[in-house]
Amino acid sequence: MEIGMIGLGRMGANMARRLARGGVKVAAFNRSYEVTAKLAHETGLKACATIPDLLGELDKPRVIWLMLPAAMRPSRRWSIWFHCWRAAMWWWTAPTLFTRIP
Questions:
Q1: Which ranges of the chain have pLDDT less than 70?
Q2: Rounded to 5 degrees, what are φ and ψ at 8?
Q3: CATH numeric code, 2-100
């Protein structure tokens, strides 16, 4: 199994750690690449500098988990979503949205 994780704050980083520890291939992106690189060194996940890089690391059908803060500007959140929505088969977003995209 493999998953893309976007957003490596407190919750996203811990989910990525647990998934990687459980044997899941994790490709991760965070707006601050230093955070992503540090977590990659710690866990062995694939650090991606851009969202297209993250999408390129995942086989189809792609699964992407968004862990974005509620306080994030809506325009930024929609920008991230727009970059990925056609590329993914399943989405999880914190806290409660679960969507299948045909």
A1: 69-102
A2: -115, 45
A3: 3.40.50.720
